[in-house]
Design brief:
The chain has 153 residues and is of the alpha+beta class. The chain has 4 helices and 8 strands; from the N terminus they run αβββββαββααβ. Helices cover 33% and strands 28% of the residues. The longest helix has 19 residues.
Length: 153
Amino acid sequence: MSEQSAGKRKPGTPGAFSRWMQQTMNARMNRKIRRGRGTFMGMDVLILKTVGRRSGQPRETPLAWFPDGDDAWLIVGSGGGSRNPDWHANLMAHPDRVSIELPGRGDVAVTPQPLDGDDRERAWQRIATDQPRIAKYQAKSDRTYPVVRLAPR
């Protein structure tokens, strides 16, 4: 009998209720962003639009963003700490089909660039300075959160 059929699941694997709750909360946040409320818990937010890596279905995820120059955005794949979020896998699978929606600006087609090395470190320092709570979450995780730069296509 598998772990799931025995009523158990692997740690860090979302159950049906938690997936439903996340989808419900994402939909609520997306509505707020579309009504012009572009902040949450003191952070600027956008809607990341990707395509499911397996399903091919459109996906919309509200995320905090951080400025990177005049016309680029940084996003962090914290995913609750234990694993990269689904949106990150979708973004990497279909980088040519990514856009963002910003309050008052509408859709912007973007090209994602995962940052590593010194580029990631510089970006991370700006993010951690702007939002120390994200650095606190990172310190508790066994993995390094991905940082992705989104630039207009």
